[in-house]
Design a protein that fits this description.
heterodimer; A: 258 residues; alpha+beta; Arc Repressor Mutant, subunit A; Beta-Lactamase; 2 domains; 6-stranded antiparallel beta sheet; 3-stranded antiparallel beta sheet; 9 strands; globular; B: 276 residues; two-stranded antiparallel ribbon; 8 strands; 41% helix
Chain lengths: 258, 276
């Protein structure tokens, strides 16, 4: 096996995880590698289109080939096309961006989105992943897993040492309410996610990712309309098993790390 | 010899070649939705099978590829989800249509709608309201059954015969939620008759027969197989936007729609799945 190739892949990941373009020296320091070695790897990555220079500067960002690879990967979630019209309906109703999140091991993954039609709307990244308990859409998925699976997630969090997990009470509340809410904004309005449950070991959530919900002040009719749309997706999932199949059925959640 | 000692002993040029091979094997999966075999990859990239096999092994060990259920072929692995790279709406008909709606509204000053199939219904998911004291109003987001109204039947007509039959069977007895007279929506035979009439024309010019009604131009947006992505509708009150005015503006409307129609052919329309 080529450790030089592995190093190049790790450099690509370092650039991908960074919120800003990175220079050779920064990468070399972060990875404890000689700058010359990093430069040679970057040269190979640029030739493959996997990283690119940021606006002709000496700093680097992820290249267009990675985006194409990720699109090919997202296309394996065949449910995206089936769910997208429902997301558009929600986005049009609320003006906020509506997204489909699925479970991937102990992570949540945003696989489809319909941009909000309001003056201001979130533009979240597709392919973004997070530990299930770290995001309101992930909590909506997690709360509807079996008690044994939730306990397994807690063990995974504990093994990773850096993650807290909500109490069982919090998950009970989500199950009772039928939705999970995110952090409220300055006006007390929060994003909201509805679980989509059709298989015992897998799940998804439909999230309205902008500030649309405030407990006590959101109209019950609006909430029930959003809920009904998530319910129709759930019905679809139950009757269209092939389209809603997990593309990574063999993935072991406990050993899979992003 | 440890891997690092082994690597240090290799000339830089060979290490770079091996790296280039691994990266080029990864990029060879960029436009492939299905699994790929060693021979296929080796042939495409002009390398021998042993080199391809080693590159595939490196990428599999790193989680960028996985073996498929046969164990013989390779497909992209979830490691690429370690970071997100784009908002990714390049094949989103709603996002693509927005500039077209704006241009059509600018041309006519009338109401413009984008409607899609959601389950068994047509749903207007984007619109620009017309200007003036009297304008055409649309119930944005309100579901209208696919057999009711010309706009809905424009979507229905571009589904396959089998899908239309499934829809009509699931929707029976045909609901009639619309207060405007729409006799063709009342029977299965009426729906089929209108479906055949719609399929015979590239677009529809239509006015409701009752007094003080509206007139419309309805354009289907289809994929390369003729399946429906959406319909774009321009409509206004007949006193200023009757069929004569629509026909006069039609060549310019079609020119505005042409780039969207071409782009929509590049990706498939959503599957039609009859929900409960």
């Amino acid at each position: 096996m080529s450790s030089s190739a592995r190093r190049s892949l790790h450099i690509m990941e370092t650039i991908g995880r960074s919120a800003r373009p990175l220079g050779v020296t920064e990468i070399a320091r972060a990875m404890r590698l000689p700058p010359g070695t990093v430069f040679r790897s970057l040269d190979a990555l640029v030739k493959a289109g996997l990283v690119a220079r940021y606006q002709a500067s000496s700093r680097y960002v992820i290249g267009s080939t990675v985006e194409r690879l990720q699109r090919s990967l997202l296309a394996r979630f065949r449910m995206r096309e089936a769910v997208l019209p429902y997301l558009h309906q929600l986005a049009s109703m609320t003006g906020e961006t509506a997204c489909l999140h699925v479970r991937l091991g102990w992570y949540g993954l945003r696989v489809a989105s319909a941009l909000g039609t309001g003056e201001v709307a979130n533009a979240p990244h597709l392919g973004e992943s997070y530990a299930l308990g770290d995001h309101f859409a992930g909590k909506a998925i997690l709360a509807f897993l079996s008690a044994a699976e939730i306990a397994r997630y807690r063990s995974w969090c504990a093994a990773r040492a850096n993650r807290a997990c909500d109490s069982n009470r919090a998950f009970t509340d989500i199950r009772r309410q039928g939705y999970a809410v995110g952090e409220p904004d300055f006006a007390g309005q929060a994003p909201i996610a509805f679980p989509v449950v059709w298989a015992p070991d897998w799940g998804a959530a439909i999230a309205i990712e902008g500030p649309v919900f405030a407990s006590g002040s959101t109209k019950a009719s609006a909430l029930s309309e959003w809920w009904a749309i998530a319910g129709r997706v759930e019905t679809l999932a139950r009757t269209q098993g092939a389209i809603f199949a997990n593309p990574f059925p063999a993935l072991d959640p406990d050993s899979f790390v992003l | 010899m440890s891997p690092s000692e082994k690597e240090a002993a290799e000339p830089v040029r060979y290490r770079n070649q091996a790296t280039q091979r691994v990266l080029s094997v990864l990029t060879a999966f960029a436009s492939h939705l299905h699994s790929r075999g060693v021979s296929e990859i080796a042939r495409e990239l002009g390398m021998n099978k042993n080199m391809a096999y080693r590159a595939l092994g490196t990428l599999t060990a790193e989680g960028y590829l996985t073996r498929d259920s046969s164990g013989e072929r390779y497909e992209l692995g979830p490691r690429l989800f370690a970071y997100a790279v784009g908002t990714g709406n390049e094949s989103d008909i709603v996002a693509l249509s927005r500039p077209v709606l704006e241009q059509l509204h600018q041309l006519t000053g009338e109401s413009v709608y984008l409607s899609i199939v959601v389950g068994r219904n047509r749903v207007t998911v984007d619109d620009i309201q017309g200007q003036g004291a009297r304008v055409l109003r649309s119930q944005r987001c309100s579901p209208v059954p696919l057999h009711c109204t010309k706009m809905s039947r424009m979507l229905l007509a571009h589904l396959s015969d089998r899908e239309i039959a499934e829809y009509l069977s699931a929707a029976a007895p045909l609901p009639r939620p619309n207060l405007i007279p729409d006799p063709q929506s009342e029977t299965t035979a009426g729906v089929w008759e209108d479906v055949h009439a719609i399929r015979a024309v590239p677009y529809l010019l239509w006015r409701n027969p009752h007094h003080a009604s509206a007139a419309y131009a309805i354009f289907p947006i289809q994929d390369s197989a003729g399946r429906p992505h959406a319909v774009v509708t321009i409509g206004g009150p007949r006193e200023r936007f009757d069929l004569t005015e629509i026909e006069a503006a039609l060549p310019r409307m079609r020119r505005i729609l042409e780039p969207l129609e071409q782009e929509a052919r590049l990706f498939p329309a959503p599957p039609f799945l009859v929900d409960a």
